[in-house]
Structures are given as structure tokens and as C-alpha cells.
Amino acid sequence: MKYLFFVLFFLTGCFDRGDSPEGALRDFTNARLEKMVDRDFVVARTTGKMRVSVESMSDEEFTLFSDLRKYKRDTFKIISKSCQEKRCYVTYSLGYHEGTNNKKTWISEVKKIAEIIWVEGKWLIADVSNIKTYHETTETIEVTP
């Protein structure tokens, strides 16, 4: 019986449902790359600087920000986390690609730091900063028309 308890404890710890800073970040990132999210979705999961930025976007700017359906996620790795009370800084890397017909035309990996704050019983993303970006292409880049 104690082994069953141990297995259940281990499994529930492995499946992050968004009730941790890393889970909230993972859920937000996955949703943005899997479907076209609306402004209400983003506003409900952000606070502070990021929420102000999203709310101040025109409809056209928000469409460009939110429509990431042409990109497919390859990797999502939490690199480090530093928390104090109700504020966490999570360093993570995200790998994704753009391509059509099973051919990857662009491969990218970005390393970022997300500030995530506990607000009214949930973790919300307050800010995201880029640290490093790496792009690779399989096609020639045209710099002149």
C-alpha cells in the first residue's frame, strides 16, 4: 500500500497543471504555439508590464503578436528558477521551427527569463526578457528584392 502512495505522489509531482510558476509558463507558451489565442486569454494570464503592453496593442498588433500557428514547438526546458515569496524568475529555453510540407525552413532556439507573480491565487506572467536567440535556416536568405 505504501508503494501505491509513493507512485501516486511521484506521478502527481511530474504532471504540472499550471499551479506552479513553471506550469503557468509552460501552459501559456504551449497554448500560444498550438492555436490562435484571443486577447482575453492573454490578459487572464498576465499582469504588470506584460498586461499593460497587451492591453495597449491595436487589434492589428495583437493579431501579429498572437498568431503563432505557423511555428511548431520542438523543445521547452526550464533552466533555472529563483523565487522569493510571491515572485519567481524562471530562465527557460524554447526551441521551435517554421516549415511547410514536413520541411523545416527556420529552426530557432531562444533563451528567456520570465518574471512570474502570484496574484489572487494564481501565477501570472509579468514580464519576459530575451537573453539569447539562435536562428538557423535551410534556405538562402534574400536581403535585396
Task: Tell me the quaternary state.
Answer: single chain
Largest sheet: 4 strands, antiparallel
Number of helices: 5
C-alpha-based Rg, rounded? 18 Å
Q: Strand fraction band?
A: 35-45%
Euclidean distance between termini CA atoms: 70 Å
The whole-number mean of residue pLDDT values reads: 85
**What order do the strands of the largest sheet run in, or round the barrel if closed?**
1-2-3-4
Residues in helix, %: 25-40%
Q: Give the beta-strand count.
A: 4
SS content category: alpha+beta
Order of helices and strands: HHHHHEEEE
Poorly predicted runs: 1-16
What is the overall shape? globular
Keywords, separated by commas or semicolons:
145 residues, 4 strands, single chain, 5 helices, 42% strand, alpha+beta, four-stranded antiparallel sheet, disordered N terminus
Plain-language structure description:
The chain is of the alpha+beta class and 145 residues long. It has five helices and four strands. The chain has helices spanning 2-14, 21-34, 39-44, 48-56, 59-66; strands spanning 71-84, 87-100, 103-119, 122-137. The chain has a four-stranded antiparallel beta sheet with strand order 1-2-3-4. Strand 3 and strand 4 (122-137) form a beta hairpin. The longest helix is centred in the N-terminal third of the chain and has 14 residues, at 21-34. The N and C termini lie far apart (70 Å). Residues 1-16 have low confidence and may be disordered.
